[in-house]
Specification:
Length: 323
Amino acid sequence: MSLGEFALIERFFAEGFARREDVAIGVGDDAAVVRVPAGSELVVAVDTIVSGVHFPEELAPEHVGYRALAVNLSDLAAMGAKPCWCTLALTLPRVDEGWLQDFTRGFRELAIGHGVALIGGDTTRGPLTLTVQILGLVPSGSAIRRSGAGAGDFIFVSGTPGDAAAGLGLIQGKNPKMQSEHDRYLRNRFLTPTPRVELGLALRGIASAAIDVSDGLHADLAKLMTASSTGAHVDLNQLPLSPALVDSQGVARARGLALGGGDDYELCFTVPADRLSAVRRAAAASECSITRIGVVEAETGLRCFDAGHLVTVDTTGYDHFAS
Ligand code: ADP
Ligand code: MG
């Protein structure tokens, strides 16, 4: 990029991240080299976030950095993989050291928390765009797929979906005024979502299928069902809604956001009936709340029930919100 490119990389990206013994060559050469242990498979995902598209332009750089990595950790969580290394392709409109400092802080905090080493990347000039590639490991053959759900399996979701969409609405000023405590909680659920990495690891050998919820629970569960050639019976009364979401939106809108809002980064997964106690133990061990919201059926399609009645759901919670 500019004269300062090398110094910029040295200053912000060469040091200060998790050090791992299995990194043979990290930042500084033409490519990175990592050691993959025998008996493991490499799990790879990449996600790009674009300013003004995936996050509001005014988002604090610290949160941009955090989210750029969080969305990728979430993909590995859904596979039941242990995240190990990442690369970062950074496109910046200009070199702003204060921005880079804050961005790196958010990114680094999460990377260190998960023991993920930054092993390389690319730095270019252009509209603000962040691409993170994440690499992780699973014991060979044990990755959790979308395609493994079978009729009779129970459907679970982690955490409280819908919060992030409400938080984004608040950040964008499209939300009615609400209590500041709820306000802060919901905003943070968008700004610093918790990728369910520990839960994903604990679900290996227990969940028959999994997906991370980034586009809204309804849409992502539908993808899981399609991949598994199955359908779902979803009980709307069981949706885990946070008190902040219900208090601020009312139940109907809260449900719409939980089903249709994006950016939750929760896990939606299926569990055979004979593993129900195992999944409860797994969730407790990973300190993550999980809720049973339905059951897999042989008939394809998603059927949502409210107090026993089949209903057409409003999955455009977020759009509604914006209007
Ligand atoms: P090349 O021109 O050979 O592609 P670069 O000058 O782009 O190399 O990068 C030099 C080194 O710095 C490489 O090891 C690359 O992986 C690393 N790097 C560049 N940008 C970043 C970044 N944003 N984050 C982490 N590492 C980076
Ligand atoms: Mg090179």
